Amino acid sequence: xxxxxxxxxxxxxxxxxxxxxxxxxxxxxxxxxxRSLRNEAVRRRELLSCNQAVGESFTDYxxxxxxxxxxxxxxxxxxxxxxxxxxxxxxPDTGADITVxxxxxxxxxxxxxxxxxxxxxxxxxxxxxxxxxPAVGYFEAKLHLGNKSCSATVYVHEGxxxxxxxxxxxxxxxxxxxxxxxxxxxxTHVNRCTxxxxxxxxSPAAIKDYFLQHFSDVLISKKDLQTQPLKKIAGPxxxxxxxxxxxxxxxxxxxxxxxxLRDQVKEELDSLVQLGIIRPASDNPSEWCHPMVxxxxxxxxxxxxxxxxxxxxxxxxxxxSPASYDAVHNISPTVKYFTTADALHGNWQMELAEEDHQLTxxxxxxxxxxxxxxxxxxSATGNAYCLSGDMALQGVPxxxxxxxxxxxxxxxxxxxxxxxx
Length: 421
Known about the structure:
With about 425 residues, the chain is α/β, with parallel strands linked by helices.
């Protein structure tokens, strides 16, 4: 009796397994059917325009976009010209002596088996020194990556799931350096890779126009800031370090503004907000609040803040900055050509850490405002800016800098133009 019950239970389990398999087959068939009813372009459009909805958790968004990605065939057409498929299939392996692919890749790459040569009579081992399955054969191919190419012998093995590119072919295609695995002893960093050919230019005005045109992304004027944001210096934001036991300072009444300057002050404040240098403070109360100070100019007005009390309560970092006299004496007496550059709103190119914004709060007749960038009147601004500038220009020959003023010099014009470029 017990044996019959066990047989009945086994039979029921097998029936359930078969039912589950049949159900999966039905669901797969239905999915293929409904997928064929929809246009591939529509599915791609839904995937590319999929954004996280308001209030939707990232987990739900990730699951939704993954379902859309599973429905879209990102690689249609000729498989040999599909960049997405090639990148997914090929892995550089600097530990491999040969380039290998599996038999499962032949159809995807449109490689007929008639191209095979007889397999070599050599043993192939894997990274763990275990023997590799025998090669089915090999064929000659031309590998291309960007503007690099090389001839390659590609071995075909059973069971290979991923295409592996050998060390020599990685070198030939410039995926690794030609001296790999030797360490790279020297790296020359340049912002532009193009060669400068302007030896026919001798007029300073023509040379200036050339650089202003070709480097318009960094050589800008105050007028350009009306249509583009002020770029920030690369690197971590600056921190303000309060001394232990520092007491906050607060003023609750703004200083009066002369009637003739009110419109100019409001316009300047709005301009600084647009540039991302300052921002309206939040509703959260701040223990720090400083008075605004106006400095009239020939055209307009300069907005400054009296940070006297904050400066007396912070630990100031120190970084050497050469005096103008010392900088000039570092210039070789044989040079004849010079180029000067002045950083536009140099200090404001340095971002201030978010948690320190409230320390720079100042009051105006138009509301409470905080600095997003390093304030010019802060005692540590000059030291931090000089450090960032020296790090950015480190290694540039014939270059002297005083705060945000830079001077490049050379003995001949062609060398100087290449230097500046």
